[in-house]
């Protein structure tokens, strides 16, 4: 994986008016793939979910006529969650390096990197079309 310095030097910062959107999107996509976090931008790497086990019958009381149900605690793969969060944080960090703070502030409440990226793509694709139509 290329160094963070290579990422910083190899990807243009996104202009707030979207003048360089097409070049930025291409450079950023390639760089995020090289840093192995592109799936976080596309949504192909969802947050690992907690697996809720089904309740199981443990005993049958003849007089009660029904089984007592015992529920196990949910299975939590702490390692998978930690690995996902590490990559999600790296993806967000890389994005924040290359967009202006106002753009991040506008979209940060959308939650995941995939949701933030989708909103940025929509916003700047529109701005880019407007810029090209005014030329």
Computed over alpha carbons, the radius of gyration is 23 Å
Total helices: the number is 6
Along the chain, the helix and strand elements come as HHHEEHHH
Major sheet description: 2 strands, antiparallel
Low-confidence stretches: none
Helix amount, in percent? 55-70%
- Cα shape: elongated
Distance between the termini: 39 Å
What structural class results from the helix and strand content?
mainly alpha
- Tell me the strand percentage band: 5-15%
Order of strands in the sheet with the most strands?
1-2
Mean pLDDT: 85
- In total, the number of strands is 2
Describe it for me?
The protein is mainly alpha-helical and 135 residues long. The chain is built from 6 helices and 2 strands. The protein has helices spanning 4-10, 21-34, 38-42, 78-98, 101-107, 113-133, and strands spanning 56-60, 67-70. It has a two-stranded antiparallel ribbon. Strand 1 and strand 2 form a beta hairpin. The protein starts with a helix and ends with a helix.
Task: Put the structure in a nutshell.
16% of the residues are buried.
Name the descriptors.
mainly alpha, two-stranded antiparallel sheet, 6 helices
């Amino acid at each position: 994986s290329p160094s963070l310095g290579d990422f910083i030097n190899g990807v243009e910062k996104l202009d707030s008016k979207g003048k360089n959107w097409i070049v930025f999107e291409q450079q950023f996509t390639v760089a995020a793939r090289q840093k192995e976090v592109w799936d976080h931008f596309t949504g192909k790497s969802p947050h690992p979910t907690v697996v809720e086990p089904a309740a199981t019958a443990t005993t049958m009381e003849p007089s009660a006529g029904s089984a007592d149900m015992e529920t196990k605690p949910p299975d939590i793969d702490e390692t998978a969650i930690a690995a996902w969060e590490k990559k999600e944080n790296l993806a967000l960090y890389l994005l924040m390096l290359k967009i202006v703070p106002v753009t991040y502030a506008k979209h940060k409440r959308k939650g995941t990197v995939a949701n933030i990226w989708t909103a940025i793509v929509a916003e700047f694709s529109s701005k880019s079309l407007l810029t090209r139509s005014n030329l």
